[in-house]
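// run 5 | inverse folding | seed 20
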């Protein structure tokens, strides 16, 4: 493990346990339902791939990409959709899968946007939640871990597009981004 850049927060075994727990809840809640899982690119990919394989409900997969971050560790607050859905979600249950819910700007924009497409329901599943930094009144329906105001990387999460490939999740050392 590359401990020079990040201090381990969750190792691979711990991540698997968190993902299992979330999938179990989703399987219970959507039993006998049809679900459209919408992964938010790119940060959710590892979490999504592992979680999706544990789903036992009837489900399809779609993706969206949005940006609010630019290239720094501070949210710009302005959200743009860079990739839209390729399927029709009208009358369907939608589960949005995100890596981390921070200010809430991205997910509240995406949730409002999806609701205009008249789905049956829209729920939010996030691997991490940083509620202390919230700027928009949005709460996740499924959360892996709630964390304080730390900047984390690995398992899909990036800093300036780097470190997504780490197999663990680590707290980025402040000297790297300050
Ligand atoms: P929000 O719009 O402020 O809630 O930001 C959500 C997005 O910011 C996430 O999808 C991440 O891409 C990014 N983000 C927020 N906190 C972190 C972090 O600690 N590590 C890596 N990316 C983060
Ligand atoms: Mg992201």
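// decoded
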């Amino acid at each position: 493990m590359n401990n020079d850049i990040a201090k381990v927060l969750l190792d691979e075994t711990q991540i698997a346990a968190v993902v299992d727990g979330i999938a179990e809840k989703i399987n219970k809640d959507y039993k006998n339902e049809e679900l459209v899982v919408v992964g938010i690119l790119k940060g959710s990919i590892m979490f999504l791939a592992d979680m999706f394989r544990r789903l036992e409900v009837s489900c399809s997969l779609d993706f969206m990409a949005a940006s609010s971050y630019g290239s720094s560790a501070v949210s710009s607050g302005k959200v743009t959709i860079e990739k839209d859905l390729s399927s029709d979600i009208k009358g369907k249950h939608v589960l949005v899968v995100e890596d981390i819910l921070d200010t809430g700007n991205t997910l509240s924009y995406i949730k409002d946007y999806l609701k205009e497409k008249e789905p049956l329901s829209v729920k939010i599943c996030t691997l991490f939640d940083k509620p202390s930094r919230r700027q928009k009144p949005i709460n996740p329906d499924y959360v892996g871990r709630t964390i304080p105001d730390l900047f984390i990387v690995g398992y899909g999460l990036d800093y300036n597009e780097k470190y997504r490939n780490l197999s663990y999740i680590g707290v980025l050392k402040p000297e790297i981004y300050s």
